[in-house]
Amino acid sequence: QVQLVESGGGLVKPGGSLRLSCAASGFTFSDYYMSWIRQAPGKGLEWVSYIGGSGSPIQYADSVKGRFTISRDNAKNSLYLQMNSLRAEDTAVYYCARALRMTMFGVTYFYYYYMDVWGKGTTVTVSS
Amino acid sequence: QSALTQPPSVSGSPGQSVTISCTGTSSDIGSYNRVSWYQQPPGTAPKLMIYEVSNRPSGVPDRFSGSKSGNTASLTISGLQAEDEADYYCSSYTTGSTCVFGSGTKVTVL
């Protein structure tokens, strides 16, 4: 079955770095855009970044631009988020999500702004 | 990019209908029919309920429907059931090819 499993979360000091991973299974990983979305404790969802199936295009939220880097390894069916210069406000559950992809009348559409499969999330805590 | 505006909470009795609004700007909802809705029961990951304003993914009950007018999108849950109790988030594509979520609405079944 289609599954996403995040890992790599933990406690890190302000200014520190962390690398999150997301292992995908049950679908052809390279065919899909992938995203990271986060949720601070007791707060709403915040989109963080997405990446195309071949590694581009890439987009980031303004709140993480210049500090976070999204990447993927299609041979390993894995998505990554390198987080540098971490701040207290980066504390959140980080979800990996697959973007919706549909084929109609022989044409494939990549709806990278709709997330149809989500992992369970990994918790990142930035605190001294 | 500021979060889309949703009411903090809505409630209804079983069998009733509730509607959640989601207000954006001309940079997101007002310019694109790329609105989605997600359901998040407590302690779980979000689930896609509506995409492209009013389309339901396979498996989502037809009690859930979406619409849009101007800068505001809406999610209506008809025939409210106990299992519909959850947080609901809207989301929209934005200029600059990014995404923005709403502030979230807690639906309570009385």
Structural descriptors:
heterodimer; A: 128 residues; mainly beta; 7-stranded mixed β-sheet; 4-stranded antiparallel β-sheet; 11 strands; 0% helix; B: 110 residues; 6-stranded mixed β-sheet; 3-stranded antiparallel β-sheet; 9 strands
Structure, described:
The complex is a heterodimer of chains A (128) and B (110). By secondary structure, chain A is mainly β. Chain A contains no helices and eleven strands. Chain A has strands at 3-7, 10-12, 18-25, 34-39, 45-51, 58-60, 68-73, 78-83, 92-104, 107-118, 122-126. In chain A, strands 2, 4, 5, 6, 9, 10 and 11 form a seven-stranded mixed β-sheet that branches. A four-stranded antiparallel β-sheet of chain A has the order 1-3-8-7, with no helix packed on it. Chain A is elongated and about 55 Å long. With 110 residues, chain B is an all-beta fold. In chain B, 0% of the residues lie in helices and 45% in strands. Chain B has strands spanning 9-12, 18-23, 35-40, 47-50, 64-69, 72-77, 86-94, 98-101, 105-109. In chain B, the strands form two sheets. In chain B, strands 1, 3, 4, 7, 8 and 9 form a six-stranded mixed β-sheet that branches. In chain B, strands 2-6-5 form a three-stranded antiparallel β-sheet, with no helix packed on it. In chain B, a hairpin with a 6-residue loop joins strand 3 and strand 4 (47-50). Chain B is globular. The chains are: A mainly beta (128), B mainly beta (110). Chains A and B meet through strand 5 and strand 10 of A and strand 3, strand 7 and strand 8 of B.
